[in-house]
Specification:
711 residues, OB fold (Dihydrolipoamide Acetyltransferase, E2P), disordered N terminus, disordered C terminus, binds adenosine-5'-diphosphate, binds magnesium ion
């Protein structure tokens, strides 16, 4: 439709100015703020989704079917017809031909503009049709005025924010924003295409490209101006993370060096000797990396990543041993009670025999704990008798006072948020200003590019080898219609003394549906497997009940465990040899990999069955099938993570770490590796040699959001 000037002039809040208090904001102003378009620079960086070419008038004779064109033509006929439904049909002509415009909804004002004799500028897609050329609901206005010289930007927007309003707001933001060059010339030497344009000209161009540009290069972001923006964005991210890393390097932490005493084995050595297995080479390597960090008087912030079953827990226990040996306390936090309890059991088994002679023990803290128990645990933590504290979020609650916490271990780190890590960092409040060391564990391997960008402020240790003697897990895709065969297979495994997991998907919209689905599966399996104990575990069960079910399964009495909760299956039952995942197409690849990793932990041959539901034609969607095939083809968690990143973007991996912080808007980690490498090299140089420009660059790109990245 014709773009009328809107009543209120665009008035974005301006540089760092909040909206004036007391004055009602107009709906478009509110919408601007809601979209995060607050500062001039935010507007300037709000880039078009696509463009329309209004720079040319096309003669009707030259307009082919399917072309979107702008024509200038005179109305020769305008009438409302009722067949096949009420519509306004307007015939227009230029010197070369004619065209029919059809409107199914229209106002009297439209009819007025479209009166016979009016010369109009009309824009729309040409349809062929039996009766000649047509346009459905084209945009139109009275002809006249100069043709624009640049393409017209179409911005991402919302209903309350009309395109013309947004366009003017962006334009004024672009005019006012400080776009002075922040990237020092010398840092641009290496990459030719980055020198092709500076930020100001890149932005002016992208908002108003000249009509001769290749639209394809703009659309796939390969145009040099896009490269420039992506490079700047990645640089901001690197700078911000490097800065927080350097800030942290100025902090202090207890130096946890092994206390060498003649003839006395350290706790670490004792634990190694007591383990029923040898560490893998990868485990030894990461243990050394961690020990080196702990010995420094600077807080460690290290991510320990390793595929499911690679043996991260024992690495954590060995780190704890170093800490305890040096006379300090250690805490381990897991996202769910079941997982925490599993750790507790393991660590008690490994460490308590070694701690007892020292008069120390392992304490347990969880939300669902009896008051008395909890009070006793809190006392042990406070007086230092608890050398190790294991638990859920309860570990970081305010009432928990450590005597001298020096090391915090966080399992499944992506399930914890910034606030929780910050709380842990504040738990060594002995007045010395020191912070504890942090070791974060993750079983979802983070693809390399992601680690280099979002996790650039962390040091990363990777266990890239599984303990020996594991038989590979065979993965099969099975249609839901062949459930009976799967049940027969379960019976077979049980007959061999094995155990089976059956996971039902989490349907986010409806927990109730989840439950009924799982309950039905549970009932079916109980019927189909007489004499076998089939258990049910779901997220809304009381903790005590969950525990009881888990115990029966862990101890081997329960043959089949049906579960809705994905993470709580994060348990270690080596006797389990079959994992059935129902509606596998609804899970992410990394999630599936996690689940699959619950089996194959012992020596027995293990299998994973991915049950998929088919659509009405009995077929699984093509992408869904490709994704599931990837699962069957590779057992390498890194490869799976890489594919997952490709398919679903970084959100999945970042979890709580990133909540509230901006994801990369322009750069794409799957394709922009050259730029990422450049940014990684440039960031330290810029921070060293041009600290002010670095600050300006960070605030320009990240605004107030960089804080989120720092915890
Ligand atoms: P994850 O990395 O998934 O947390 P766990 O720490 O639970 O893995 O280890 C998986 C299983 O492998 C556990 O039963 C653990 O005791 C065992 N394990 C760990 N390291 C080794 C090793 N070097 N050799 C043999 N078994 C090991
Ligand atoms: Mg684990």
């Amino acid at each position: 439709m014709a773009s009328k000037p809107s009543a209120t002039p665009p008035s974005p809040a301006g540089p760092d100015k909040a909206a004036p208090a007391g004055r009602e904001l107009s709906p478009p102003q509110k919408a601007l703020l809601k979209m995060g378009l607050r500062r001039d620079i935010d507007l300037a960086l709000h880039l078009p989704l696509r463009y329309e070419d209004e720079t040319r008038i096309t003669l009707l004779r030259n307009a082919r079917e399917g072309d979107t064109v702008q024509i200038e033509a005179t109305v020769v006929k305008s009438e409302i017809t009722m067949r096949p439904r009420r519509q306004l049909v307007v015939t227009v002509e230029d010197e070369s031909g004619s065209c029919e415009l059809r409107f199914f909804s229209f106002y009297p004002s439209h009819q007025k503009t479209l009166a016979v004799g009016a010369l109009l500028r009309i824009r729309g897609e040409i349809k062929g049709g039996f009766w000649g050329r047509q346009m459905l609901h084209p945009a139109f206005r009275l002809a006249g005025g100069e043709l624009p010289t640049a393409l017209t930007p179409i911005y991402p927007t919302v209903a309350q924010l009309p395109q013309p309003y947004l366009r003017r707001a962006v334009q004024s933001g672009l005019m006012r924003a400080d776009l002075d060059e922040t990237v020092p010339v010398e840092l641009l030497q290496g990459i030719d295409f980055l020198r092709l344009s500076d930020l100001r000209s890149a932005l002016s161009f992208l908002h108003h490209p000249t009509p001769d540009v290749s639209l394809a290069a703009l659309e796939d972001h390969s145009h040099p101006t896009w490269q420039r923006l992506k490079a700047e964005e990645l640089l901001a991210q690197q700078l911000s993370q490097l800065e927080s890393k350097r800030e942290r390097d100025r902090l202090q932490a207890p130096a946890l060096a092994p206390q060498r005493q003649r003839g006395v084995l350290s706790l670490h050595e004792q634990l190694l000797a007591a383990l029923p297995f040898e560490l893998t080479a990868a485990q030894r390597r990461v243990c050394e990396e961690i020990a080196r960090d702990l010995a420094r008087g600077v807080p460690m912030h290290r991510l320990l990543q390793g595929d499911v079953g690679s043996g991260k827990t024992v690495v954590a226990a060995l780190a704890a041993a170093i800490c305890i040996d040096a006379g300090w306390q250690c805490a381990l936090m897991a996202p769910t009670e079941i997982l925490a309890e599993q750790h507790f059991g393991k660590l008690v088994g490994w460490l308590e025999p070694l701690l007892a002679p020292l008069g120390k023990q392992v304490a347990w803290l969880a939300g669902a704990q009896k008051k008395k128990e909890r009070a006793a645990a809190l006392a042990l933590v406070e007086n230092g008798e608890a050398a190790l504290v294991v638990g859920t979020h309860a570990v970081i609650q305010e009432q928990v006072r450590f005597k001298n916490l020096a090391l915090a271990l966080i399992d499944e780190q992506h399930r914890f948020g910034v606030a929780q890590r910050l709380a842990l960092r504040g738990k060594l409040d002995d007045g010395s200003g020191r912070e504890p060391h942090l070791l974060m564990m993750s079983a979802t391997p983070i693809p390399r590019t992601l680690a280099m960008s979002y996790y650039a402020d962390l040091d990363v240790s990777t266990i890239d080898e599984l303990p020996p003697g594991r038989t590979p897990i065979v993965t099969r895709l099975v249609s839901d219609s062949r459930r009976d065969e799967v049940v027969a297979r379960i019976a077979d495994q049980i007959a061999q003394g094995r155990q089976v997991y059956w996971v039902c998907p989490l349907i986010e919209e409806s927990e109730a549906l989840d439950l009924s689905n799982a309950t039905a599966t549970h009932a079916d399996l109980s019927d189909a497997l007489p004499g076998v104990m089939v258990g049910l575990l779901h997220s809304r069960m009381p903790t005590a009940e969950k525990k009881a079910v888990m115990e029966l399964f862990t101890q081997g009495q329960m043959g089949v465990l049906v579960s809705t909760t994905v993470i709580e299956v994060g348990v270690d039952v080596p006797n389990a040899s079959l994992m059935v995942i129902e509606h596998a197409e609804r899970f992410g690849l990394s999630q599936l990999h996690q689940l699959r990793g619950r089996v194959g932990r012992g020596a027995a041959a293990s299998a994973c069955v991915l049950l998929y539901a088919t659509n009405d034609n009995g077929r699984l969607g093509e992408t869904a099938r490709d994704r599931l095939r990837a699962m069957a083809e590779t057992a390498d968690g890194f490869e799976i993570a890489r594919r997952d990143l490709e398919i679903r973007g970084p959100g999945e991996f970042l979890g709580a770490r990133q909540s509230g912080a901006p994801l990369l808007r322009f750069a794409d980690l799957a394709t922009d590796t050259v730029l990422l490498d450049w940014a990684r090299e440039a960031a330290p140089q810029m921070l060293d040699r041009h600290p002010e420009k670095a600050q300006l660059h960070i605030s320009r790109w990240l605004g107030g959001k960089s804080e989120y990245l720092k915890a």
